[in-house]
């Protein structure tokens, strides 16, 4: 006789699936950091930004937003970039439509800083002409993960900064900035960072 699983069994199964998905994501991320998929990293800017797009996707897998930041009626996790971003194509095509749990990763184009509200992740490349410090200041305390590339990005209040190390994409994390915006970064992601800034002091990692 077939017995339908009860609610607790379904909940446990769902939890196990999420854990397996996160573990698989961590493995893929570790391989990405090791340089296995970064064969094009030194060949072109396009290859570099395809790799960075993959990093942005994985960041979303190891981040917890407050419940108010994710609209129950919207099944997407939104990465926002400005519509004049020089590397827009690589950022859009690499990860658009990929699944993150029950949600879908979506790249959203914006034209004005006022449109950032409602974004889950904001990426500002080193070629972005808009005033970075002013944008980051306007987002303080709001649950938007900010990712950039300039040398002073973390000092300006950004949360994750890309940099190149021996031709490979690496990243630093400003944990204090993320926590002040009520974002929880997984300890597993912190372990993969080159450095983590806690309360103004940077701990060197990898």
Strand content: 15-25%
Uncertain segments of ≥5 residues (pLDDT<50)? 9-14, 16-21, 36-42
CATH domain class name:
Alpha Beta
CATH architecture: 3-Layer(aba) Sandwich
How many individual domains? 1
Radius of gyration computed on alpha carbons: 18 Å
Would you list the SSEs in sequence order as H and E?
A: HHEEHEEEHEEEHEHEE
The helix-and-strand class reads: alpha/beta
Mean of all residue-level pLDDT scores:
81
- Under CATH, the topology can be stated as Rossmann fold
How is the largest sheet built, in terms of strand order? 3-4-2-5-6-7-8-10-11
Helix proportion range: 25-40%
> Whole-Å distance between the termini?
54 Å
Tally of individual helices = 6
Number of strands: 11
Shape: globular
Biggest sheet descriptor:
9 strands, mixed
Structure report:
The chain is of the alpha/beta class. The chain has a single domain, classed as Rossmann fold (3-Layer(aba) Sandwich). Helices cover 35% and strands 24% of the residues. The strands form 2 sheets. The chain has a 9-stranded mixed beta sheet. It has a two-stranded antiparallel ribbon with strand order 1-9. Helix 4 links the parallel strand 5 (121-124) and strand 6 (145-148). Helix 1 (7-34) runs antiparallel to helix 2 (45-61) and helix 2 (45-61) crosses helix 3 (88-95). The longest helix has 28 residues, at 7-34. It is globular.
Question: How are the elements arranged and paired?
Answer:
Blueprint: H1 7-34, H2 45-61, E1 63-64, E2 76-82, H3 88-95, E3 99-100, E4 103-110, E5 121-124, H4 132-138, E6 145-148, E7 160-165, E8 168-174, H5 175-180, E9 184-185, H6 187-192, E10 195-198, E11 201-204
Parallel strand pairs: 2-4, 2-5, 5-6, 6-7, 8-10
Antiparallel strand pairs: 1-9, 3-4, 7-8, 10-11
Helix pairs in contact: 1-2, 2-3
């Amino acid at each position: 006789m077939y017995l339908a699983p009860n609610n607790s069994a379904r909940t446990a199964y769902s939890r196990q699936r999420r854990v397996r998905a996160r573990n698989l994501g961590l493995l893929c991320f570790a391989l990405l950091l090791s340089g296995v998929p970064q064969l094009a990293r030194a060949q072109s800017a396009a290859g570099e930004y395809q790799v960075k797009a993959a990093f942005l996707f994985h960041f979303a897998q190891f981040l917890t937003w407050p419940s108010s930041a994710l609209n129950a009626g919207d099944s997407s996790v939104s990465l926002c970039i400005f519509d004049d971003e020089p590397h827009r194509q690589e950022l859009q095509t690499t990860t658009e439509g990929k699944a993150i749990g029950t949600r879908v990763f979506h790249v959203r184009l914006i034209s004005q800083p006022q449109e950032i509200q409602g974004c889950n992740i904001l990426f500002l490349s080193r070629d972005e002409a808009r005033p970075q410090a002013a944008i980051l200041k306007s987002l303080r305390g709001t649950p938007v993960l900010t990712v950039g590339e300039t040398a002073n990005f973390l000092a300006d209040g950004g949360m994750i900064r890309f940099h190149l190390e021996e031709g490979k994409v690496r990243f630093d994390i400003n944990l204090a900035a993320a926590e002040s915006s009520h974002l929880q970064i997984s300890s597993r992601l912190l372990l993969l960072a080159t450095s983590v800034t806690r309360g103004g002091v940077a701990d060197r990692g990898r």
